[in-house]
């Protein structure tokens, strides 16, 4: 009986480190000053040709990123739209990103390739399509 | 038999203690692989500051206003905003002689036999008596003139969500546009390899 107790205690002691390792703590990195060239004919946004953001996430333990920055527009239009959103890597390795642009527009990029470039779509607050945009990761 | 059991227990306890000590050392030691040397370039606050600055005031219209007020039958014209109309033409929000604002397009007539001849992103020009008067959008002047403004932060051609007056995000000196992309590419390549490996 005593042998059995000792065996169980030993098993518990061996299991403790393994269990503690399961609670991994993430260390997010911030990737700064990411630039995309933006091309679109959507009225009011056609002049906004540069997406400049930072992205924060722990790509070692997660597939998600928080993204925040600006959609830069010509000076004549008054400046930039603030953007905030997120992105994730799909199980197929695709890059999927959704950004709120200003307060009334959403930019959705689904299944971008590993080049992080491809077609996206602008939507309004009602979800109606405003028009396409093409993002090129510089 | 009992001696063999005791020996087995001693061995088991020794192994457990060794494993525990190793686990404690492993958890305490730094792990380079968990913290890849991804270059992060925090932007100095001074670089971001321009984005946070309030919109720059439009060029002063004091000269125009003075010229107009020098005329006995002059109009007190205040342009508090310019917007894009649904037809693509610019609209100017104008208060004349401290009356409620009018929405004017090029070609519209104004009180005092004046006609709007031009509207751009920062000003409106009207013609009166064969003379053109250019009035800049000027929220501050509108407030000074006692004209009620719908928005305290009137800005030329305002779109919802604009970070008004931001010329662009400033970059740290010596950095090239998109220089953060390379570090991101490296991190993504590593991530895609992990995904492909099913990790």
Summarize the entry for a quick read.
Chain A is α+β, with helices and mostly antiparallel strands and 138 residues long.
Topology diagram in text:
The complex is a heterodimer of chains A (138) and B (199).
Chain A (H helix, E strand, L loop, with lengths): L1 H21 L6 E12 L9 E8 L6 E9 L6 E11 L5 E7 L3 E8 L5 E7 L4 E9 L1
Antiparallel strand pairs in A: 1-2, 1-8, 2-3, 3-4, 4-5, 5-6, 6-7, 7-8
Chain B lengths: L1 H27 L16 H8 L9 H8 L7 E8 L5 E7 L5 E3 L4 E2 L3 E6 L3 E6 L2 E6 L2 H6 L17 E3 L15 H17 L3
Antiparallel strand pairs in B: 1-2, 2-3, 4-5, 5-6, 6-7
What does this structure look like?
The complex is a heterodimer of chains A (138) and B (199). Chain A has 138 residues and is α+β, with helices and mostly antiparallel strands. Chain A is built from 1 helix and 8 strands, in the order αββββββββ. Chain A has one domain: Lipocalin. Chain A starts with a helix and ends with a strand. The mean pLDDT of chain A is 86. Chain B has 199 residues and is an alpha+beta fold. In chain B, strand 4 and strand 5 form a beta hairpin. The chains are: A alpha+beta (138), B alpha+beta (199). Strand 4 of chain A pairs antiparallel with strand 8 of chain B.
């Amino acid at each position: 009986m005593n042998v059995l107790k000792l065996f169980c205690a030993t098993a518990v002691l061996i299991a403790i480190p393994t269990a503690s390792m399961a609670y991994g703590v993430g260390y997010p990195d911030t990737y700064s000053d990411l630039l995309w060239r933006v091309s679109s004919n959507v009225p009011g946004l056609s002049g906004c040709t540069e997406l400049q953001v930072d992205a924060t996430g722990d790509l070692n333990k997660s597939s998600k990123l928080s993204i925040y920055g600006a959609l830069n527009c010509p000076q004549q239009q008054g400046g930039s739209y603030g953007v905030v959103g997120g992105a994730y890597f799909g199980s197929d390795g695709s890059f999927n990103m959704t950004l709120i642009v200003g307060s009334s527009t959403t930019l959705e990029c689904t299944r971008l390739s590993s080049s992080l470039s491809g077609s996206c779509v602008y939507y309004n607050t009602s979800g109606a399509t405003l028009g396409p945009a093409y993002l090129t990761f510089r | 038999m009992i001696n063999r059991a005791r020996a087995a227990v001693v061995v088991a306890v020794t192994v457990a203690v060794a494993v525990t000590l190793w686990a404690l050392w492993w958890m305490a030691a730094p792990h380079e692989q968990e913290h890849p040397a991804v270059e992060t370039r925090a932007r100095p606050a001074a670089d971001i500051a321009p984005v946070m600055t309030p919109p720059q005031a439009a060029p002063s219209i004091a000269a125009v206003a003075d010229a107009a007020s020098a005329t006995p039958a002059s109009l007190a014209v205040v342009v508090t905003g310019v917007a894009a109309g649904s037809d693509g033409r610019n609209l100017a929000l104008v208060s004349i002689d401290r009356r409620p604002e009018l929405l004017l397009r090029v070609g519209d007539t104004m009180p005092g036999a004046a006609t709007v001849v031009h509207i751009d992103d920062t000003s409106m020009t009207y013609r009166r008596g064969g003379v053109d008067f250019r009035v800049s959008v000027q929220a501050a002047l509108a407030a000074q003139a006692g004209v009620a403004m719908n928005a305290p932060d009137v800005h030329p051609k305002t779109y919802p969500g604009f970070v008004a007056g931001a010329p662009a995000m400033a970059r740290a000196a010596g950095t090239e546009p998109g220089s953060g992309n390379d570090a991101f590419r490296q991190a993504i390549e590593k991530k895609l390899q992990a995904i492909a490996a099913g990790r």
